[in-house]
Amino acid sequence: MILIIDDDFSVTASLALLLKQAGFAAQSAASPQEALQKLAHEKFDLILQDMNFSRRTSGEEGLALLKEIKQLQPHARIILITAWGSIELAVKGVQAGASDFITKPWSNAQLLQAVKTALRLSAVSAEPVQTAITREALDTQHDFSNLVGRAPNFLRVLDLAGRVSATDASVLITGESGTGKELIAEAIHRNSERKTGPFIKVNLGGISATLFESEMFGHVKGAFTDARYDRKGRFELADGGTIFLDEIGDLDLSAQVKMLRVLQDRTYEPLGSSRSRTVDVRVISATNRNLAEMVSRGEFREDLLYRLNLIALHAPPLRERVEDIALLAQHFLQNLGKVYRRPNLILSAKALQWLQQHTWPGNVRQLRHVIERTVLLHSKDVLDAADFVQALTMQPAASDKDTLPAVGSMTLDDVEKAMIEKAMKHHGGNISKVAEALGLSRAALYRRFEKFGITP
Question: Do 82 and 15 share a structural domain?
Answer without folding.
Answer: yes
